[in-house]
Amino acid sequence: xxxxxxxxxxxxxxDSYFEADPRGIITFANRAFFENLGLPGRESVLGRNFRRFxxxxxxxxxxxxxxxxxxxxxxxxxxxxxxKPIKGEARPGELSISPILQDGRVIGSRxxxxxxxxxxxxEQDLRRAKNAAEAQAAKLRSVNRVAATVGQSLxxxxxxxxxxxxxxxxxPVRNAGVALITPDRQSMEVVAFHTPxxxxxxxxxxxxxxxxxxxxxxxxxxxxPLVLQDAQNDPRSETLSDISRARGTxxxxxxxxxxxxxxxxxxxxxxxxxxxEFSDVEVELAETIAGQIAAAVDNAxxxxxxxxxxxxxxxxxxxxxxxxAGFFPERLPDVPGWExxxxxxxxxxxxxxxxxxxAIPNTDLIGFVVGDVCDKGVGAALFMVLFRSxxxxxxxxxxxxxxxxxxxxxxxxxxxxxxxxxxxxxxxFATLFVGLLEPKSGVLHYxxxxxxxxxxxxxxxxxxxxxxxxxxxxxxxxxxxxxxxSHELAPGEFIVGFTDGTxxxxxxxxxxxxxxxxxxxxxxxxxxVHSMIFELSxxxxxxxxxxxxxxxxxxxxxxxxxxxxxxxxxAICRKAMIGVVPEFRAFVESVAQYSGLSGDQTFALKSxxxxxxxxxxxxxxxxxxxxxxxxxxxxxxxxxxxxxxxDDGVHFPPExxxxxxxxxxxxxxxxxxxxxHIARSQLDRITYSRTQIGTNELxxxxxxx
Amino acid sequence: MNSxxxxxxxxGSGGVKCAAAIGLWSVLREAGVQVDSVVGxxxxxxxxxxxxxxxxxxxMRSLSESLWTGDVMQGYRENLKASKDxxxxxxxxxxxxxxxxxxxxxxxxxxxxxxxRLDVPLTLVATDLHNGEKVLLREGLVxxxxxxxxxxxxxxxxxxxxxxxxxxxxxxxxxxVDVAIQDAADVIIAMGFTLSYRTxxxxxxxxxxxxxxxxxxxxxxxxxxxxxxxxxAEIFPVIPELDEQVSMFDVDKIPRVIEAGEAAARAQLPHIxxxxxx
Amino acid sequence: xxxxxQKMNAVVVVSPSGSIDATTAPExxxxxxxxxxxxxxxxxxxxxxxxxxxxxGLRVLLGAAKxxxxxxxDLRLSxxxxxxxxxxxxxxxxxxxxxxxxxxxxxxxxx
Lengths: 705, 278, 111
Known about the structure:
The complex is a heterotrimer. Chain A is of the alpha+beta class. Chain A is 37% helix and 25% strand. Chain A has a 6-stranded antiparallel sheet with strand order 8-7-6-11-10-9, sandwiched between helices. Chain A has a 5-stranded antiparallel sheet with strand order 2-1-5-4-3. The termini of chain A are far apart. In chain C, helix 3 (82-90) links the parallel strand 5 (74-78) and strand 6. The chains are: A alpha+beta, B alpha/beta, C alpha/beta. Chains in contact: A-C, B-C.
């Protein structure tokens, strides 16, 4: 049962309570009502229209809600509106109204207003705090982005530029510039600059002398940031002040870039708002980013130094390689009735292995060497050059042609003693095989100083002998005794010298090539030593695969031809598969170069061989996959180069190659016609014949006159 | 695919028979076929240049007459005699005819027209006398390029342009369809002429002309086959049926030549239109 | 064969390296086919690292040129070595393909 003193009860409410008639005139109001409005007493609200205490923007809503009330006779749910106290801002409130009924008719309204301004305020505060936190997070993300940028590129100017872009997005500034102290330490150079405003002039490249630029000086000296509120008039920014005035800058933040405790430059950012006050948080953030700039600069400088050092080192090595290459014979000896061939691949840029072959002046003797200086690298390379030069120099002195064995012995001894005496402290030595060949008699005199015994193989491909060591490695002790041996080469017989890098060559699985396999490769009825060396290198390359080469590989061969008059025949034979075409091409190229042909002649031969071999492989074996393809090449110096390609495929005369399939586009229907055309255009003759044993023979000829 | 297939018109070497191009041009205009580029070689360069400038077919009818005036071959007889008796020193820059009339006629017809001012891009083909290579002319004065392209060997002196001694384009490629192929034109309309062979030979130059016809026809066959295979779309050959010889002075035969060109063009038109409709 | 792609504006620069012959041409062909199937029809073949080509390579180039031209694009060459140029010119390909001294000019020619 409610007490009669309801008004007193209502006066204890914190919320405003009122009653109004249908016109909106307030008929009752509790204490809170007029107090919340900032009014002194009840009489100041009674008799007044509720509208008067409502903020303009809520009037319509009010009419709407009250209208609903009177229409429906039902209470209206709580709605928000703004009420207007006498003094001060309108405040938000929540109003709920209900009808006063009499006999089912609405005769008035009663309302309860909750002042939610504190509530709203709290909400606003929360939102502001949230925004501030988000802004902070955004700033941190920017810092992260800057860090990422620093890590992404080694190009310092790109990195610094990106940082300036980030800075203008983090801070409300007109531009951001990074200035680094110049080498003469008298001024600073703006090395990066960004402005999002089109009308701003770029300061990139600007030189700011310390002299008369006290603000930068101060920052550099104190290693502390500086915030100038009035750059135009601050005496510390005199030089800047002209620029500032021109740009309308007033407020500017300058932070130092510190590297290892020293200031190497500054970051300057003038605010967009001339009266902006940079907060401590902002200055701190700027310092953090300056730290990242310092890291970027340091990184870049370090990298450049390392790069330069590396480049210098590589450059020197490359020079070393080029010089050393000059110590290998440019051309192998050209002696009628004899063939020479060699292959050399260094493991590193400079090598310790070597071979040499030269005519002994004033004689018809040929000297040749296969050597391996102990150890690797620059030291070995230097000694390789020394050994090679000594041998060549001493060989000039070969007095008596009638006594080649004695001469050879003297040569070895002189070389050995020289190295041992003058370079004993280096403890460098080399295993050497030195041969002195008498082309007329076919006799080879040799001294093998601790080197892998060269193999002697006859015309039928059988191993005839190994030329074993006749003394220790060369260069260790003075007076070392050596012996000379002699071997007469029969027609067709050849000698192959090699270094242990060849037999030790490692595959991806770590397996060495092994001497047995090498000898297996050698012992075949080779048509020429060049062909033999080519095939041997192919075997070695397949074995090594893509592994980095461990040691230098050296091969040297000399052969007494079966028929002194006829030119050497170089040959290669493979299964007729498309994959062998590059090898055939490489073979033709190697022979052409070996024979001293010009670039154009070499290209004509290799290109034609490629095209025709490709045609054979693609069209000669429609029903088989066990075909054989062989190519032999003979070069008669200054006369003719002739290639003979033999295959056991279908009858395939070149002229018929151009029969087109008229429906297919050119690329498909050509059936070898285009390749044939290319070959024909570069050669002098192409002749085809079908032999009696059912093989095809294509003869390609290029005149060399 | 492009919005509309591009069309290139190639008019090859054929002496005065190239006037058939007028017939082709009228047919194309009538049918509303838009031409995007023109290639001309030797005799074809005259008409190619006119088409590239958007000349009316009517205006083009008098081209041949205006160029090959009665005095255009001045000096021919005297120089021929002098070269035979050794009193005329003949070098690579020489020609039996004094070309001043030809040059004047060209200037009268084409004036100072430059390639840059043409309606559509034009390429004229000449041959470098020293290395036999095809030379593409695309800039400068049109009349100079025409002069180089139509320089009948031995008769007219070659023209030096950019350090090269240029002569008849037909020697390197009588129907340079490859120029259009290189420019990735979609539809190529190629008007080519097989040179007719002589029946009567009464002078050294008659034999020389016959040889030129033989060489030219052979080159034409060889390169045309290759070009067809190398092109990504269609080449429409428009070859007028003209058995008779038409020399530069046969003005009365020109109307027949034009008609033959028209007829050949009409025969190809439906195919061309089909290709353009895509 | 090593083949790298680089996109410059709307143009793809394809850079093969090594020798293009019957064993390696199919790879180049497949590589270009793939680009064309993804609507990359403005192609520059940068031949700076190509030391040799046989007719097999020419066929791939011609096929690519026709494919791309049919779709409004083209295949153009750049930085062609003398030996490779020799083969191109012997076969008459220099008159039907656009060849530039350097890649930048080739790319710019598409503009």
